[in-house]
Amino acid sequence: MQFPILSALIFTPIVAGIILLFLPAENRVWIRRIALVAATLILLMSFVLYFTYDVSRGGYQFLEEAKWLPQFGIHYKLGIDGISLPLVLLSGLVIFSGVLVSWNVEDRPREFFSFLMFLGASVLGVFCALDLFLLFFFFELAVFPKYLMIVVWGYPKTREYGGMKLTLYLFIGSVIALVGTLAIYFGSGLRTFDLLALEQAGFPAEFQRLWFPFVFLGFAILGGIFPFHSWAPDGHVAAPTAISMLLAGVEMKVGAFAALRVGIQLLPEGAQYWAAAILLLATINVVYGAFIAMVQTDFKYVIGFSSVSHMGLVLIGFATLNRDGLLGAGMQMFSHGVMTALFFAIVGMVYDRAHTREIGALGGLVQKMPWAAVGFIIGGLVSMGMPGFSGFVSEIPVFMGAWQVAPLVAIVAILGILITAAYIFLVVRRVFFGEIPPALDQSVTDISRKDKLVIGMLALVMILLGWFPSLLTRLIEPGVQSILALIGGGR
Amino acid sequence: MSSAFTPEMWRSIFPEIGLLILAIVLLVFDLIWLKQPQMRARWLGWMTSIGIVLIMGISAGISMPQGQGSVEWGGMLRFDAAGFVFRMIFMSAAALTALFASQFEALKKRGEFYALLLISTLGMNLMASAADLILLFLAIETTSLPLYVMAGFLTRDDRSVEAGIKYFLFGAITSAVMLYGFSLIYGLTGTTQIYELRSAFQAGNLPVGLAELVIVLVLVGFGFKISAAPFHFWAPDVYSGAPTPVAGFLSTASKAAGFAVLLRVLQIAFAGQGSLWTVLIAVLATASMLIGNYLALAQRSIKRLLAYSSIAHAGYILIGVAADSELGTLSVIYYLIAYLVTNLAAFGIVNLIESRVGSDEISALAGLNRRSAGLGLAMLAALLSLGGIPPFAGFFAKLLVFAAAVERGLIWLVLVGVFNAVVGLYYYLNVLKVIYLHPPVEEKEVFPPTPAWRIALWVCLAGILLIGFWFAPWYSLAQAATSAIWIY
Lengths: 491, 488
Fold this sequence. Notes:
The structure holds two protein chains of two kinds. By secondary structure, chain A is mostly helical. The two termini of chain A are 39 Å apart. Chain A has helices at residues 5-22, 28-52, 84-101, 109-128, 132-141, 143-153, 159-188, 195-199, 205-220, 231-238, 241-266, 268-294, 299-320, 323-354, 370-383, 390-405, 407-432, 438-443, 449-467, 470-490, and strands at 61-69, 74-80. In chain A, helix 1 (5-22) packs antiparallel against helix 4 and helix 2 (28-52) packs parallel to helix 4. Chain B is mostly helical. Chain B has one domain (7-485). Chain B is built from 21 helices and two strands. Chain B has helices spanning 7-12, 14-32, 37-62, 81-101, 105-108, 111-129, 133-151, 158-189, 194-202, 208-225, 234-241, 244-269, 274-296, 302-323, 326-357, 368-371, 373-387, 393-407, 411-436, 451-469, 472-485; strands spanning 70-72, 77-79. Chain B has a two-stranded antiparallel sheet. In chain B, helix 8 (158-189) packs antiparallel against helix 10 and helix 15 (326-357) packs antiparallel against helix 17 (373-387). The longest helix of chain B has 32 residues, at 158-189. The A-B interface holds A 21, 25, 68-69, 71-72, 74, 108, 110-111, 137, 140-141, 143-144, 147-148, 151-152, 160, 164, 167-168, 171-172, 175-176, 178-179, 182-183, 185-186 and B 369-370, 373, 377, 380, 384, 389-391, 395, 399, 402-403, 406-407, 411, 414-415, 418-419, 421-422, 425-426, 429-430, 432-433, 436-437, 469, 471-472, 475-476, 479. Chain A: It is a multi-pass membrane protein.
């Protein structure tokens, strides 16, 4: 029998989280070690998956199946395809970085790392699930780690508000998606939650049009779709650094991914019917997010709104329903995940040292923390789609895809990227260059080696991907092809 | 009907005989240890609990009904899987409550408390298996009278006395209305046997308006037992005034007994008359969810919060009843099992905190995570299970209830349900926030609970987790009970 690597991937953080809860709270050394070991294992396993996935065969691989509740059509079924594999890799990278940047958490590190592990298990589970119920189970598993981590370890001024807002928004989204999910379950007449079987169910067009908005919007709320995006900046800003990284870097992709897998793949005709509406909302995401980011005075809010803007590109890619757009969306999910994790990591490092995130109160930090400055500039270049960085190779296909269905959308979205360039330059100039305020000159020190490792690793990934996009496109391409086959089959 | 006793008849009431004997034994020991309160405090709870577990074990061995079930005792009692599963639910709740009660100063030395608990459980057992309206009424009274006394057990505490009297008055009025409904049923059909009523109603010799009236009258009584709005007014005061273990018992076992009766009467006597009562139940469900959840938002006392939340949960469970389908019945039973362990755990923890901090305000929970990380986690599991978050029991229970309604096309009811679930999550998370974020009332505080309390909590927690992701055994139980109710 094949080694159940996907189960190992999902259960590593769960087991680590449970072990952590049983350790004595004072044992900080072992708490951090166990978290790091688990995160390293996850990262290694995701690399193993990356290198052993058979591209020539395509489709779902590393399949695992076990009975869970067969009377109700629930199975424990795992498998990954070219769309989910990059996201698994992304989760591995961000969880690992998240553990490193939280190395010095003072307050109750046991609970912190334990909940972090549960959150990691939740996202990995969603990406690997091939059973609708299992997907939903893991999706909802994230609720309490998210809430508690923001509320307990977050930014004291806004954590209670931001945490509750984020949790309730996402819970509303997920219960709406639940209603749609149940409708799909009963509507198929198959009495199964098996995604592969449901893909072939051939729902009537009426049914698809009625239920598509439920599942797509329900999940896309977690992807930050306009006008349900406002949880994102507030939640990200209120969260502690590692959780901001995971939320913006991975959780938002969980939303987008679930919207793709359940919404578009199961109800392709519904997707075609509603594509124009999604395109419109997503375009608003891009432009509106960028404009709002521009006028923020809080460093972290800039990044929070930039996430809203960039997730818009992912959703545009989905809504094009063509090869280029979907390919770009797949790339953008990975690229934005790494980029925003890097951004939030650096914002966290700056805040920990300067104790302020007001852009006006910062300045000249390149002298004190050159690594952070360089990392932020690389992230910025990715974000504005500069050639040679991963942003370019993921945004261009999205625009190409959009051009084929609605040129105006492509033009407006490209304008959004121009605004992105403007606010990124603005932030870089004000925070990292210019005069350093005297107060900061005294207090700010350089970042630790672990922080540098995080910045180096994430930046390297983005540059590599910029030069060799085929590292990921070779995976995403077959994934996109099978989605296109479903859309074609729906006609 | 022959008058000779058959072994089947004795098998069908074995658990009740056992409970009665156990109650008498307890009273005897209460007398033996008259002068030794510490012996009573130490052993009575254990004796009750172990006794019930023994009865449950033996019942599972010898009085497990076979096949579709049969009618025993001259048409009085239905001996089937539904009755069996519900009996197990009630007796588990009673066993856990007896253990939790050992943490409560004023209860643990009182043999009569445990005896009342057992008699009330006996009544519930009969409620779940009654096949005749006469026995049903007697069973409901046998259940309720000990519960009135238990709610008002702390005779020196005004709030407890008030709880007892309030509960009694509400119970008496609703019982009277329900009995009037029963008498109308008898007058209209000439029978009180639930299984015969079905054919009488289906013959269609009953005017629709009258049938509707009868159903409304009967629902008043059942609505009171399950604390559904608008028959919920007693719940907050009784839950907060009654001794905490009693409140836990009321909110789980007593509610489950109400649902057992509701399912059997509606789906057997009124089977095929679904159009008459599904809308009514859906309205009750909506009202209960809205009133329970929105009033819970404003509560400062954790017991009152749990009381309103229990009204809301009655609403969620009623969604499963309103679905009027096999999946609906199954979801109701699954939900009751999940709710049993969850709410008993929550009330158990509140009981302990109350006995240490001396307050049932939500603020008494502040910093629980720092004071005792394990208790913090236990409360987390209970609250999230109430909120319907995986991997805890409440998640799959809620999903099943909603699934049942989606299956029947009751989309509006599901939407009401899911939005209420969001409101519910809000106040559960607020309590969780107090536990994890707020500074503790006192910096370091140790909680030395009794071993009995500890074991009961562990059982509840294991239940919350197991029901939350190991669905198969509980689903099969619920399925067995469902197929015994859905025989037509």
